[in-house]
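Minutes, structural biology subgroup

Action item carried over from last meeting: produce the C-alpha cell record for pectinesterase (Fraxinus pennsylvanica). EB confirmed the sequence was re-checked against the source entry. Recorded below for completeness.
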Amino acid sequence: MDTIKSFKGYGKVDPQEELAFKRKTRKRLIILSISLIVLVVLIIGAVVGTLVHNKNKNGSNEVPSTPTSSAAAIKAVCSVTQHQESCFTSLSSMDSSNSTDPEKIFQFSLKVVMDSLENLSTFPEEWMNRTNDPRVREALQVCKVVLDEAVDYLNDSISTMNVDKGGKLISVPKIADLKTWLSTIITDQETCLDALDEVNATIVEDVKLLMKNSTEYASNSLAIVSKLLGILGDFGIPIHRKLLGTMDSGFPRWVSAGDRRLLQAAMPKPDVTVAKDGGDVKTIKEAVAKIPKKSKKRFVIYIKAGEYVENVILDKSLWNVMIYGDGKTATIISGSLNFIDGTPTFSTATFAAAGKGFIARDIGFKNTAGATKHQAVALRSGSDMSVFYRCSFDGFQDTLYAHSNRQFYRECDITGQEGP
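Output recorded by EB:
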C-alpha cells in the first residue's frame, strides 16, 4: 500500500512569500481591471453600434426599439461563452429578455438552465422502467441523485440573485458562490454520464443528446459570471490576503469563527454520542436519523473509539453536521462496497457527505474491498464548504472522491494504490 498524499497544517506565512504574493496580486488586479474595461466597452459598443446602424438604415433619428438594443447586449454578453449560438438563441427567446443590463441577462441565463434541467431530471426514473439490467438501474439511480442535487444548486444560484430593493446584485462572495454551484451543476451531469459509461450502457449517447442543452446552458452561465461579472471578483481580494486563502488559524475564510473553535476544542459538546458499548446510539446510521433537515444550527455527533462497519450517507438535506472521533486510527468507519461486485463508483463510498457545511475531525474512513475489486471509495464528499481535519482515508483504488464544491483538508492522510 502506497501513501498517495498527506495534507499538513499551515503555520505562519513566510514574509517573503507574502510580499511576492502581494506583488503578483497587484499585477493581476491591473491586468484584470483593464480586461473588465475592455469587456464593458465591447458591450456598450455593441449596443451603440446597433443604434447607429438602425439610425442609418431608417434614415431617421428615432431611438430603435428595446428588443434591438437588447439583442446587441445579449450578443455581447454571449461572446464570452464557449457556446455563443446556443447562448444567444436561448436568451433571445425569453419573453422577459429585453434588457441591456449584463447582470439581468445573467439572471435570465439561470432561468434558461432551470428549464432545461427540470426537463432532464425526469429521465432517470422513466428509463429505469425500461430496463431489467440491475447495473444500468444502479447507474440511473446515480443520475437521479446528482440531477436532483443540480436542481437544488441552481435554485440556490437563482435565490442568491434575488435581492431586495437597493441591495447589491453582484458581490465578490456571491460570485464565488455562483461559480462554485454552476461548476457543480456541470460536474453532476458529467457524473451521470460516467456512471452510465462504467456499465457500457448503450444509452450513454442518448443521454448525452438529452443533456446537450442543459450542459451548454450551464457552461454559458458559468462563463458569464466568471469572465464578465466576476472578472475582478475572481482576484478582487484584499492585498493582505493570506496564501491559500487561509486565516491565521490555518482554515479558509469561509470557515466561521464558531466552527474554528469547534475544530480546535478538545471535546465539543455532542448532540448525539455513538458508542458500540453504549452512548445515545450504537450505530452511526442511528445518529444520522436524528439530524434535523436543512438546519442552520451546527449538529455535532461524537463517535467513540472502535470500528463501525456500515455505509453512511449524509444526503443533500442534512446541513451543518460535524462528526468527530477519538483519533484517525482509533475511530474507524469501514465498508467494502466496490465496482466489481456491481456498485457504481459513485455509490461505493463507505461514507458520503452531500449536505453543505459538513465537518469531520479525528476519524478514519476505510474501504477494505481490495485492489482486485477496482474502484472502492472510502469517502465521497460533495459538501460545499466542508472541512476534514486530522482524518485518514484508507483504501486501494479511488480512496478519496472529492466530487464537487469547496472542500478543505488539513493534517489528513490518504493511502491507496495508484493504479488499477
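Discussion: Residues 1-13, 46-65, 232-245 have pLDDT under 50 and may be disordered.
Next step: EB to file the record with the rest of the batch.
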